[in-house]
């Protein structure tokens, strides 16, 4: 995740990220420039009269396209913000769980168990939400968890089993066990919410038609701009293409907030925060 000062206009205008987007789109912008130059050359040198295509059509289509792009970016940001809220809740639940374990138990073995398993669950969830990355989520030690297909579930089940042992042994009362189980249930709820975001992308038809709409809109721009701008239609079309496609690229990047792109959530930092907080709480006498 990129950390920046939102009040620094100059640094944002010339940010390195915008240059990376430009480099990514440069081949496509060059292709649009060649296409526009070809249209300008044909209309200005071979046709007796340039094709008269009213700019009103593109103005109306541009208005509709802008509404689609606003909805597209808002939908993508909602997914990003929902992921951020879930991981913020996971930080709080982890702290609460560690605090309750510390206050309910005098046995250091119990503290050591949860000191390893709370961050283990969080880090397994992080890797579970990044299926395209080479890191395989770690599992708890011992059968049957070490061979579990779903690593975060294995960590949650191991903690619940440990809590039941403390209840059965009389170390915890039923009320104390219930309070711990509430936090474990909340952690599993966060797991499910994150999986929902990951496994339900933007509907295929919506994403497909959005890209087609942008492509058709930009490809037909030279036909309407030649009579107005002449050869200046080439850079104008390239600029419009850059603006529209950049917005689409931003939406594509943030709609999956758990990856490793520059604008994705800082999951590594959140995992480290939870590990540090958990160790601090559970090592207090």
How big a fraction of the residues is strand?
under 5%
Number of strands: 0
Mean pLDDT: 85
- Structural class designation: mainly alpha
Q: What count of domains describes the coordinates?
A: 2
Order of helices and strands: HHHHHHHHHH
Describe the sheet with the most strands.
none
Shape: elongated
User: Between the first and last Cα atoms, what is the distance in angstroms?
Assistant: 36 Å
Query: What share of residues is helical?
Result: over 70%
Low-confidence stretches: none
Rg, please?
27 Å
Number of helices: 10
Short characterization:
The chain has helices at residues 9-13, 16-45, 55-104, 108-128, 151-168, 174-199, 204-219, 221-229, 233-254, 267-282. With 285 residues, the protein is an all-alpha fold.
Tell me the layout of helices and strands:
Elements: H1 9-13, H2 16-45, H3 55-104, H4 108-128, H5 151-168, H6 174-199, H7 204-219, H8 221-229, H9 233-254, H10 267-282
What does this structure look like?
By secondary structure, the protein is an all-alpha fold. It has 10 helices and no strands.
List the main descriptive attributes of the protein structure presented here.
285 residues; mainly alpha; 2 domains; elongated
